[in-house]
Amino acid sequence: MATDKRVKVTLACEECKRRNYITIKNKTNDRERIEMKKYCRWDKRHTVHKETR
What was the pLDDT predicted at 30? Predict the structure, then answer.
């Protein structure tokens, strides 16, 4: 299949450890875990969110 390279990943907040976001990444281009600054509605501010397994 052509879509096997793009996988769904879950992003968890580093402050409260809640899993807030689901996004898609390309496994061939991004081998390591991704980090993004996203809005956490429980902390009510932008925090770093990391990819979980």
Answer: 85
